[in-house]
Write a structure and sequence with these properties.
Two copies of one chain form a homodimer. By secondary structure, chain A is of the alpha/beta class. Chain A has helices at 18-26, 30-36, 44-52, 64-69, 71-81, 89-95, 135-147, 165-171, 185-191, 230-233, 256-268, and strands at 38-42, 57-62, 84-86, 104-109, 125-130, 152-156, 179-183, 197-200, 206-207, 217-222, 238-241. Chain A contains eleven helices and eleven strands. Chain A has a seven-stranded parallel β-sheet with strand order 7-6-5-10-8-11-9.
Chain lengths: 272, 272
């Protein structure tokens, strides 16, 4: 974890001013997150993962219980920059976007990640997300990517913001341990068109269970409602499909994050 | 589709009374759904799947566009029991639980399913859900069960109601094509203890990718926060685990519905 000087908030206050409430609440919106380069992390579990990561924390607002449970940590944080501010429970509720505030709320600097590049001879799997617009789905995909050891995620510009509060909660903290970049997906795929580019398609996809899947390349995941867009689909040189058991008139598609989980599992199963 | 006489609502009205609004709104709550034996289905896609199924419809409230798009269907429904009532858009919004009402809302009879029984020599997979309490997760699991041809789902009594509005929406209509029962899960497993009972456990589970999985038995899925409960776990005679690629301090678990998808895929992959 890198610590930088907080510039947005006064230190060691126990009351949160209306202006601060307004600032923090505004961070629920993408526009304001982009403008400030900040985002909000809520709750004990998420904060625990945040602290293990190399994200920069601007400020931590916490209730007495959290501060007492994390005495050594708080002392070391405050030694450097008075990062932790104790606030009353009702103050925490004012800035929380959860139905019940979970003891601690952090203001954190977004981490810009460069687009994925391969080192010489490096073999790795990269996830490319094509306009995933459901915040919960994106969060679940990030969580699962980490589970299967996929650390690089490239998102199209219309994919939902990974610092969206719902997305963050669904990652269960996994977001702090993967690299996420937003870019023009067609340009990224064009640059990497000589690699294996896998993608699920409805027509002419090969049965995923019968393929020799290479753990080196890019897996494109499309949105649940529209699948992979046409402009992205033309770069998919390994079209795959997850076969369906149900009569075709009974079920149309799998949830995007579930499909992604099945695909990642299928890539990794021979390695274990 | 079986059609029965509507008893709750007047027929061919174009205004919805306050009492009706109250009744329909109350169906958002489990207590009232249980008491009335009814539930609400919203939107075009869900209604389309409902009509293909053998669920009994009590009443359909629809706007002009939906009725015009489904002329033949409406004529045949109204011939028997004046099932379809045309209402104005603003009327539909009054009873909808969606942010934007999607043209049609149906009042439907719940379908009680008997506990799963095996016919002589029948080989099948059954899902047993142990206290799945997230409505969205339950819906996704139902949708995916259908995809993988698992038609029987046995839920513990503390599993969230499958007619919960959020669950219904997440099933994307798959709910109308599977059999769901709620029962004492330990009793059900006790009765079937000679079958293969699979379940994911954190300790001593065998690597799922290295098992000979039998497509005949019961797969127990535990809740995301608590896993499989101890009282259910003692019936699991085939403990399995999905191996994790990430360092153990970075990720703790997979989303319950994603884990379920990976397990079902692993059972079915050799069949395709």
């Amino acid at each position: 974890m890198t610590i930088c000087l907080p510039f947005l908030f006064f230190r060691l206050i126990s009351m949160i001013t209306n202006a601060q409430v307004k600032t923090i609440t505004a961070l629920k919106e993408k526009k304001f997150r982009e403008r400030s380069g900040l985002f909000v992390v809520e709750g004990r579990k998420m904060t625990q993962e945040l602290i293990k990561s190399d994200y920069e924390i601007e400020q931590i607002f916490a209730c007495k219980e959290w501060i007492e449970d994390n005495k050594i940590l708080v002392a070391s944080l405050n030694k450097i920059a008075n990062l932790v501010v104790e606030v009353a429970d009702r103050e925490l509720s004012r800035i929380s976007s959860l139905s019940t505030a979970d003891r601690v709320i952090c203001i954190v600097k977004q981490r810009k990640t460069n687009e994925v590049e391969w080192q010489t001879n490096e073999k790795k799997l990269v996830l490319a997300l094509d306009d995933i617009n459901n915040p919960g789905n994106l969060g679940t995909i990030i969580r699962m990517a980490l589970w299967f050891g996929v650390k690089d995620i490239v998102c199209s510009k219309d994919t939902v913001d990974c610092y969206n509060p719902k997305t963050l909660q669904s990652t269960m903290g996994a977001i702090f341990h993967v690299n996420i970049s937003y870019t023009d997906l067609t340009e990224f795929l064009f640059k990497n068109q000589k690699r294996n580019i896998y993608g699920t398609v409805l027509l002419n996809g090969k049965n995923i269970y019968k393929q020799q899947l290479q753990n080196d390349g890019i897996i494109v995941i499309g949105s649940e409602s529209h699948g992979i867009s046409d402009k992205v689909k033309r770069f998919v040189n390994n079209p795959i499909t997850i076969p369906c058991f149900a009569p075709s008139n009974e079920v149309e598609s799998l949830n995007a994050s579930v499909a992604c989980g099945i695909i990642l599992s299928e890539f990794r199963r021979t390695i274990f």
